[in-house]
Structure formats: C-alpha cells, structure tokens
Design brief:
binds 1,4-dihydronicotinamide adenine dinucleotide, Rossmann fold, 6-PGluconate_DH-like_C_sf, 8 strands, binds 1,3-dihydroxyacetonephosphate, alpha/beta, globular, phospholipid biosynthesis, about 50% helix
C-alpha cells in the first residue's frame, strides 16, 4: 500500500484524500488546525468542510508536517494558490529527493505570475517530470459523496501520469492523462474568473442566454491565453477546460460562482468574503495575475478584465456590462 501525503485538509484536499484511500493508498493529511486533525482521526470526518461525509479508515491526519511527510512516496498539495509558496517553503526540507508532487491548486501566483507547478519547481527544486497537476470538473462535495466524475492528471512524464492515473482511479472517479500541464493549469485558473462573472450576471438577475454567452466567450479568451503560453487548444475543449468551466459556472456548490452572485446582488468584496465559511474563491486574486499575464502575452481577455475591474477597481457591474456589449463587433 503506497503512503501518500495530502498537505491541506480543506474541502478538496479532504475529498482527494478519500479518493486516494478508496483507490487503495494509505493517506496522511496535514491539517492546519488541531481540531481538524482530531476530527479526521477520531470521527473519520471533516465536519468544517465536508459535513456528513465519512472518510475511510486509511485516512489519518496530523498538524505536524514532518510526521505527515515521513515515508510518503507522493505528496498532494491542497492549499490555496496564493499561500502555496509560503507553505511549501516550510515543508521543502522534509521532502524525499525522489518524491512526486501533485498540485490541486487552480490559480496563478500574484506578483510572479507563475503557474503553481512553476512555483513548486522553483521552491522544491524538482524537475518538471516529478510534478503533476490534477484538474477537472470536480466540485469537492460531489466527489466526496461518490458521485461519478472525471478529471485530468497532467504531467510531462507520461509514465508517471499513468501511475498516478492508477493511484486516483476508483469506481466513481475517473482520471484521464494529458501531457499539457500548461493548458490544464491555465484552464483551471481562468475558469474560476469566468465563474465569478457568471455569478455576477446571475446576481444581477440575468438569465441563461447571458450565462451561455459568458461561458462560451470565457472559453474563447481562456484558450487564447493558454495557446499564447504554449498550451494545446484541444486541452481547452476537454475536462480541464470546458468541463471544469461548465461545472464551476453553473453549480451552486462553486465558491467562485457564489462569490460572484453576491457581488452581482450588490454586496461588497468584504461582505461576499464573509460568506465563504473561510474557503477560498481563487478567482478573486487570480483575476489580477491573469490580466497581467494576458498583457504580457499580448492577448485580449475582456471578461477577465471586467471581473478585475469589479473586484479591485470599484467598477460598477451594470456599467461594465454595458461597456462589454459596446465593444467593437468582430468575427467569432
Ligand atoms: N473545493 C473544490 O471543489 C476544489 C478546489 N480546487 C482547488 O484546490 C485548491 C485548494 O482548495 P480547497 O481545498 O477547496 O480550499 P479550502 O479553502 O477548502 O481549504 C484550504 C486548505 O488550505 C489550508 N491552508 C494552509 N495554509 C493556508 C493559508 N495561509 N490560508 C488559507 N488556507 C490555508 C487550510 O487550512 C485548508 O485546509 C484551490 O486551489 C482550489 O481552487 C480544485 C478542485 C475542486
Ligand atoms: O474547481 C472547482 C470545481 O472543479 C471548485 O470550484 P470553486 O473553487 O469555485 O468551488
């Protein structure tokens, strides 16, 4: 039985811990709070993030990263994108030199504009073939309940991607492999921003034509950015692109969509933040780094710019929407 460390016991880290244990691994989770580790060890659940979900007995937890990482063959990084660097810096001396890393994060680091696998490579000094990313339409609650879902495991080392595919395969969770790490990470980060704009539109009372327009044009601008950064266009038509975009833009379980809805109803950023139960809505910060990345790459991302303006420049959603509709006409 392989021993896998999951660093982060939030909603997705916990759901992924359950998947890995159901697929046959021994899973040790790192939790920030003692109560979370106790809850997992004593009650086999994580009541703060996934109330009612029973975790397999092969899942245990600790707040001590040394204990969690001791003997681990793989380490899953399940902390928010903007905190990953600082967390990993604390753990780097505890990683075995040949350890495999799997990033679950869906964001772009602010300031550096790095994808999260690039942050991992820089901080841990690992070659890119040792770093994989997992991304797809995977709302944590549904996966934890055992509802059927698929995902993508991307790694430049195809043999490693195939090994991870096995390690994550269960009767309800079906991973596909891909070698397009850039496309999977860009798709995962941009869909959160498009989910914010879909939520804003919904909060403003707009209907399904608007939502479908935002999803489709959101996919167009995400693909434009990804391709400019070296990704494959086909990745954006797959699970880590369109698949995740649809799930996140339409689901009431999405933190990003819900956050946007509150903004669209007129709440401030602070009010919307209060309602997240301490969970991350990655798009709020990543919209800034994605706008900067798009400028650097020379591609237009009007919807992402709109979200940035509403979230961080005091933009009024109605005025921003009117301006978007008045953009010059163009071929599709
Ligand atoms: N929840 C979901 O349905 C999915 C989430 N993801 C991605 O997985 C990553 C992790 O997300 P979740 O587990 O959902 O997040 P979460 O907000 O539910 O949990 C974050 C975890 O990171 C820990 N953490 C460590 N350092 C932290 C810090 N400085 N600030 C805040 N939290 C800190 C928290 O204690 C918590 O255990 C994100 O990038 C997210 O976009 C990806 C797919 C599905
Ligand atoms: O990434 C997700 C689904 O694939 C989760 O989305 P939220 O972070 O918006 O909840």
């Amino acid at each position: 039985m392989a021993r896998i460390a999951v660093m982060g016991a939030g909603s997705w880290g916990t759901a992924v811990g359950k998947v890995l244990a159901d697929a046959g691994s021994e899973v040790v989770m790192w939790a920030r709070r003692e109560e979370a580790a106790d809850d997992i060890n004593t009650n086999h659940c994580n009541g703060k993030y996934l109330p009612g979900v029973v975790l397999p007995s092969a899942v245990s937890a600790s707040t001590d990263p040394a204990q969690v990482l001791d003997g681990a063959e793989e380490v899953v990084l399940a902390v928010p994108s903007q905190t990953l660097r600082a967390n990993l810096e604390n753990w780097v001396d505890l990683l075995a030199p040949n350890i495999g890393v799997i990033s679950l994060a869906k964001g772009i680091e602010t300031g550096t504009l790095m994808r999260i696998s690039e942050v991992v490579a820089e901080v841990a000094g690992l070659p890119e073939g040792q770093i994989a990313v997992l991304s797809g339409p995977n709302l944590a609650r549904e996966v934890a309940e055992g509802q059927p879902a698929a995902t993508v495991i991307a790694c430049t080392d195809a043999a490693r991607a195939a090994r991870l595919q096995d390690a994550f395969s269960t009767r309800y969770f079906r991973p596909y492999t891909n070698n397009d790490v850039v496309g999977c990470e860009i798709g995962g980060a941009t869909k959160n921003v498009i989910a914010l704009v879909c939520g804003i539109a919904s909060g403003m009372g707009l209907g399904d034509n608007t939502a479908a327009t935002l999803v489709t044009r959101g996919l167009a601008e995400s693909t434009r950015l990804g391709v400019a950064l070296g990704a494959s266009q086909t990745t954006f038509a797959g699970l880590a692109g369109l698949g995740d975009l649809v799930a996140t833009c339409t689901s009431p379980l999405s933190r990003n969509r819900t956050f946007g809805e509150r903004l669209g109803r007129g709440e401030t950023l602070e009010q919307a933040q209060e309602a997240t139960n301490g969970q991350v809505a990655e798009g709020v910060k990543s919209c800034t780094s994605i706008v900067e990345l798009s400028h650097r790459a020379g591609v237009e991302m009007p919807l992402t710019e709109a979200v940035h303006e509403i979230c961080h420049e005091g933009g009024n959603a109605v005025e921003v929407a009117v301006r978007l509709m008045r953009r010059s006409t163009k071929p599709e």
